[in-house]
Specification:
alpha/beta, Rossmann fold, five-stranded parallel β-sheet, globular
Length: about 150
């Protein structure tokens, strides 16, 4: 049995179509899991998958929508990672466009690395991640012990 995972999905504006297509293409692999999306990305995924749903296609994915990234959605996801509520981060970021909320984006990626969350930044790395045999298991990521950092004298 596949352990149900909480998968965070984020996509910058020019990458949203790629994210929607990727989710649709991988619908069957994602069905057992819960998607937690920043606002607009989540809305587009829900709209696309609901339109395409019929009696022949599997039931809809479970999608939880947070605020839009620039309005705090990236920070909401970061908090969920710190609380142990996110298992995987798939973030299709746009390397060609400056982002007005770039500090939030950097903070989200930093917290994902800090808590050792598997992270994919494009379609290929996302495909590799969700088709890994480890994705299908009850995998517990090793957490670094930050106690020495927390006890340091300033």
């Amino acid at each position: 049995m596949i352990k149900r995972k909480n998968i965070a999905l984020v996509a910058h504006d020019k990458m949203k179509q790629d994210m929607v297509e990727w989710v649709d293409w991988n619908r069957n692999l994602l069905l057992p899991h819960k998607m937690i999306c920043t606002g607009t990305t989540g809305r587009l995924i829900e709209e696309t998958l609901t339109k395409e749903q019929s009696e022949e296609t599997p039931s809809a994915l479970e999608v939880e929508r947070l605020k839009s990234g620039p309005l705090g959605g990236d920070q909401q996801l970061g908090a969920m990672i710190a609380e142990g509520k996110i298992d995987v981060l798939i973030f299709f970021w746009d390397p060609m466009e400056p982002q007005p909320h770039d500090v939030d984006v950097k903070a989200l990626l930093r917290i994902a690395v800090l808590y050792n969350i598997p992270t994919a930044s494009n379609r290929t790395s996302a495909d590799y991640l969700i088709t890994s045999p480890l994705f299908q298991k009850d995998y517990v990521a090793k957490q670094k012990n930050w106690s020495s950092y927390m006890q340091r004298q300033v």
